[in-house]
Each structure stands twice: as C-alpha cells, then as structure tokens.
Amino acid sequence: MVDLVVVAHDCAGSLAATMAALPARELRSVVVVDAGSTDATPLVARDAGAVLLHERSAGYGAACRRAIVHLESLPSPPDAVVLMAGDGSDDPAEIPALLAPIRSGGAELVVGVAHEGAGGAADRVALGLIGLLYRQRFGGLGAFRAVRFPALVALGLSERGDAWNVEMTVKGVRLGLRIAEVSPRVIHLLPGSRAAELRHSVSSTGRMLFQILRHATAR
After folding, report:
1. Alpha helices of the chain — where are they, by DSSP H?
2. Max Cα distance, the chain (Å)
3. Which structural domains are found in the chain, ordered by start?
4. Which of 29, 116, 177, 184 could disulfide-link to 94, CB 3.0 to 4.6 Å?
5. pLDDT digit string (tens) for 72-106?
6. How far apart are CA 108 and CA 88, in angstroms?
C-alpha cells in the first residue's frame, strides 16, 4: 500500500493539474498538507478527493511531519510513502519509476534526481560535504522521493524547515538504509514565480549544512 503526501502552499492551479494526473492505481490515498495557503489550494485538494491536513508552522519539514503523524494514526499505515511538491515541479507520471526500486525489494529510500546541475550551488556544496563526511556520493537532494514507511518513522526526523530532505538523506546513510536514485522528468519552474521561491527555500544552505554536520558528529 502506497500513500502520496503532497506539500502545498498557494498553488491551486498547479495542484489541480497534479491531482488530475496522478496514477490512481499506484496509490491507496493522497494526503495534501496545506502550509498556510491564502488561495484556493485547500478547496482544490478537497475537490480532488484528497485527505486535507493543515500545518500553520512555517517550513517544509513541519508539513511532512504533520503527514507522518496522520499516517501513523491510521488502522493500516502504508507500506511506503511518496513525497512530492504540489507546485507542478514534479511529474506524477514518474511515480511508478520512483517506486520501482522499493517494489523490487532492493531499496528503502529512493530519491528523484534531476539532471546534473539542476539543484543549484547550495545543493552542490551540500552534496560535496556529504560525500566528504559520509563517504557516499549522491546525485541530488530533491523533494520527489519514495520511502518505506517503517524506515521513515525509524529515522525520527526532527527538521521542521528547509533541510528536511538533507536530514533524511544523511540519517538514512547513518542508519544503513538501502538508498537508490532515479532520474524522473522534472518540470522546471520559471525564476521569480512563487513556486520557484518555495523550491529555492528548500535548499537553504545554512540549514542544510547544520544537518550534515550535526549528524556526522553524532554518536
């Protein structure tokens, strides 16, 4: 059983298109976490049949943590979770490819990696530091991910802000998770758009470096 978690903020138009394009046969349910939207994003989520949650705390990590708490409370928690943005930057048609390494039994965490250089300078710095400190090379730190739910819970992620994906990656390495990468098609956002600003905030250099160094020195 696979549940989809979509973090959405002021992206009613793109969220409607994303929900319409979801591969329904791949998913048991869709959970949309509204991160304080001021537009029709919550209405779009409800009209599309999604479970709507609200997280008023600022930060991508806080929204993801809200979804985890909800999924843990279900009588039958999912076997795996797909995480994606609601801003139209991830292609729903790529969800089966993202799940394939998990369904084959070889992976516990799968990261969708855009083409080389798409993550920006902050991501490249973080990836270099992860390679130096953790002795493991990754192609990207994108938000489009699939993860076995027991593994996600076991990670005990605490980051409430921009560096959620970085903490997931480095803690996954420390705990010995089997991590795979795939290269889904990524829809690039126009610079200056609200969605582009939100995606850029996910690569906040300070928070990323904090999580990398914090877990590298933890005993």
Report:
1. 12-20, 41-47, 60-72, 95-103, 120-134, 149-155, 164-174, 194-201, 205-217
2. 47
3. 2-217 (3.90.550.10)
4. 184
5. 999 999 999 999 988 888 899 999 999 999 999 88
6. 25
